[in-house]
Specification:
Helix content is 6%, strand content 48%. The protein has one helix at residues 87-93; strands at residues 3-9, 20-24, 27-32, 37-42, 45-53, 56-57, 61-65, 70-77, 99-104. Strands 2, 3, 5, 6 and 7 form a five-stranded antiparallel sheet that branches. The chain has a four-stranded mixed sheet with strand order 4-1-8-9, with no helix packed on it.
């Protein structure tokens, strides 16, 4: 069987025209655009999830996918409000904090 990984990207003024690339265990499995929600099949077991835009991205999040389970994560740009003025600093020194990736809870997180 398989598990399902859902990525929910908010709609924001940072990076609106570019898609975030979705990586599971270091392999790109797809892209998610501004305001999009996409679901990807993954094998059951332990995984590392990260999203990238150019060389910047999110910190990796580890998760375990149970057989038949659905997991959901939300991603957004970390460059909100006054932080947008620090874009160069994030790009050069905090590249893995450009995106904020968080697990969301759902009653579908366990196999039915």
């Amino acid at each position: 069987m398989t598990a399902f990984l859902t990525i929910v990207r908010d709609s924001g003024y940072a990076d609106p025209l570019r898609a975030y690339r979705v990586f599971v265990d270091g392999k790109e499995i797809g892209k998610v655009g501004n305001g999009e929600t996409k679901t990807f099949p993954v094998n059951p077991g332990a995984h590392r999830l990260a999203l990238k835009i150019d060389w910047c991205g999110s910190k990796a999040v580890e998760f375990t996918a149970a057989d038949g389970a659905s997991m959901s994560f939300q991603v957004r740009s970390n460059l909100r409000g006054a932080r947008i003025l620090a874009a160069l600093w994030y790009a050069l020194f905090a590249w893995n904090s450009w995106l904020l990736l968080e697990r969301t809870t759902s009653d579908r997180d366990v196999a039915s």
